[in-house]
Amino acid sequence: MAPISLRSSHTLDEPKLEALVELMYLAAYADGEFGAEEKRHFARSVQSLTDRKVTPDQLEQLITRLDAARRASGTAALLAGARTTLGSPAACRVALSLAIGVIAADGTITTSERAMIHEIGAALGLDRGGTEEMLREAEGG
């Protein structure tokens, strides 16, 4: 299967876009299921990040590829790679915000999703308090 291009007219390069998408996926999968609302929000986010160039079939292929990478490498390795790829604290905060958006899409943030967001935040070198604040805002608090 050929890799799916995430090239975009946005200022982020393809590896950074891939890291953003990967983090959104890891967050969505934190509770062991990729619910319908989360999947719709994920798809809308990917479409937005890629200027709507990813077809539904390509999105399914992307999800399959991300799931295989998660199983093969483990979440910790993927998180470490994302931090290196994203580089700046600002890009890491954007990534965390996108990940929170996906898990909050169904209106509920589970304990396992909250734990994954904190794991992502820590892996990205972000302050725990700031991560918690972002979660509270997503919950409407």
UniProtKB/TrEMBL annotation:
CDD domains: terB. Residues 19-129 form the Co-chaperone DjlA N-terminal domain. Pfam families: TerB. Coiled coil: none annotated. InterPro entries: DjlA_N, TerB-like. This is Co-chaperone DjlA N-terminal domain-containing protein. It comes from Polyangium spumosum.
